[in-house]
Design goal:
Layout (H helix, E strand, L loop, with lengths): L3 H15 L2 H7 L8 H11 L2 H9 L5 E5 L8 H9 L18 E6 L28 H5 L17 E9 L3 H16 L4 E11 L5 H6 L7 E8 H8 L7 E8 L6 H11 L6 E5 L7 H5 L8 E3 L7 H9 L8 E3 L10 H11 L5 E3 L7 H11 L7 E3 L7 H11 L7 E3 L18 H17 L6 E3 L4
Parallel strand pairs: 1-2, 2-3, 3-4, 4-5, 5-6, 6-7, 7-8, 8-9, 9-10, 10-11, 11-12, 12-13
Length: 461
């Protein structure tokens, strides 16, 4: 039999169920377990809210992950329906098919399957379950088989809901938060909401939300428009952060107590891989931050930090500068006297650097020419951004031509040459006909160099 035949039959069975929602919901009590995953995928993609609601109630596996399924704005109602119908009081469920769902994961994780492989039916595991909270299944039940967990059968079993949150004040977000709070209250404490990634704007508006979440679960935190003192108060409860991004954060002095407390939090973040301090005014004080950065840091973002020659010098000398994979120092002015230090920094990073951003650094043509020998030593470079720097078309062509030996370089965000503007860097004075000619010249040159896979991007595209 053709190997494709079973898959075709499975697809036909799924489509048959989806064509009659009421019949599909009734059939959930009897269909084979093997049909649940393909039916869930098809129902989610097709927006079948009623079927998804019913499936969550009788899900025959330990965990359910959105995984790599694409989540658009239209899918938010589906996610809400899944939360509303998540069984948190199994003893009240009258379904013949007793629900086994203990972990509902609504995050988009590209490497995650819809459900984890079952190693043992008596002691199921989920590779994405919460590992840190005292309210997690792992901490409450340990690694004992479910039947020996010490919990009475009539008691609500601990259940986990994994989410990523982006809080920006919109109505949809408020409704979602209200739903989460209501579901926790309904569970009488058996539901643990585990947030791994929080993006929040105006942190002071979400004090109630932060009290409702277990901050020890966080892997990633991004905060915009907040006081550093309040950020310190929540960082003290986060011990496993892998990524910290702060934007437009207010504090009085780099020599003050609040900033010193922040540095002490940085020092104990042993798992930190990514640090973004956009718009921190760090002129002549970058060394204070770098002394406390953990050695395992991979990505460092320092845009709009008003960095000085002294800061570049210190950055080039730090041990962390030998293994960064990403460095963003855009929107910091670079002077001629800085070039030697920048070249040293790039040479130190040449063995690991994959992404480099030097956008809007006021780098002159002669300065860029000096940087080229150091750039071409970065053999692992995949993305280079040097947009919004004032250069001419001959220099641009020379730069791109010199970069062609970098086999891993696939994306170059280049500046628009000055002759394309009637007034330099004034967007409305851009002559798009001249820009089109530049793009054609670059394309032709790269084709001759057999670098057709190198993508050239400007900020107007």
């Amino acid at each position: 039999m053709d190997a494709a035949v079973p898959n075709k039959l499975l697809d036909l069975a799924v489509q048959s169920l989806l064509s009659n929602e009421s019949a599909a919901i009734q059939a959930l009590e009897d269909i084979p377990r093997e049909l649940f995953v393909p039916l869930f995928i098809a129902a989610f993609k097709g927006g079948h809210r009623s079927i998804l609601s019913a499936m969550v109630k009788v899900w025959p596996f330990y965990c359910l992950h959105i995984g790599s399924l694409s989540i658009q704005e239209a899918h938010h109602e589906l996610l809400k329906a899944m939360i509303e119908n998540l069984p948190v009081c199994p003893a009240q469920n009258s379904s013949p098919r007793r629900p086994k769902l203990r972990i509902l994961d609504l995050r988009q994780v590209t490497y995650s399957r819809i459900t984890c492989p079952e190693i043992s039916s008596k002691s199921p595991l989920c590779f994405h379950s919460c590992a840190y909270s005292d309210h997690s299944i792992t901490k409450i039940e340990g690694h004992l088989p479910l039947g020996n967990s010490g919990l009475e059968t009539h008691s609500p079993r601990p259940v986990e809901l994994l989410v990523d949150l982006s809080l920006d004040g919109c109505l949809m977000e408020k409704e979602f938060l209200d739903l989460l709070v209501g579901k926790v209250e309904e569970s009488s404490g058996s539901l643990h909401v585990c947030c791994r990634d929080l993006q929040v704007n105006k942190l002071c508006n979400y004090k109630r939300t932060l009290k409702f979440l277990d901050l020890n679960c966080f892997d990633r935190l991004s905060v915009g428009k907040a006081s550093l003192s309040y950020i310190n108060s929540i960082l003290s409860q986060m011990t496993h952060l892998q990524s910290l991004s702060l934007f437009k954060v207010s504090f009085r002095s780099l020599n003050g107590k609040v900033f010193k407390i922040f540095l002490s939090h940085l020092q104990r973040m042993e798992n930190l891989k990514e640090l973004n301090l956009a718009s921190f005014y760090l002129k002549n004080h970058l060394e204070k931050v770098l002394r406390f950065i953990p050695p395992g840091l991979d990505s460092l973002y320092l845009p709009f930090c008003n960095l000085s020659s002294r800061d570049y010098q210190f950055l080039s000398q730090r041990p962390q500068a030998t293994h960064l994979k990403l460095l963003n120092i855009s929107n910091n002015t670079m002077y001629w006297n800085d070039l030697e230090v920048i070249c040293t920094l790039l040479v130190n990073l040449s063995g690991t650097l994959q992404i480099l951003e030097l956008n809007n650094c006021h780098i002159s043509e002669s300065a860029i020419s000096v940087l080229i020998p150091a750039l071409i030593r970065c053999t692992h470079l995949c993305v280079l951004g040097f947009a919004s720097n004032p250069i001419t078309i001959p220099i641009l062509m020379n730069i791109v031509n010199n970069l062609t030996p970098l086999m891993e370089l696939k994306y170059v965000i280049y500046p628009i040459p000055v002759h394309c503007f009637d007034e330099w860097h004034f967007q409305y004075s851009l002559d798009r006909r001249k820009l089109a000619i530049v793009q054609l010249q670059l394309k032709t040159m790269l084709e001759l160099a057999q670098c057709n896979d190198m993508n050239r991007i400007t900020y107007t595209e």
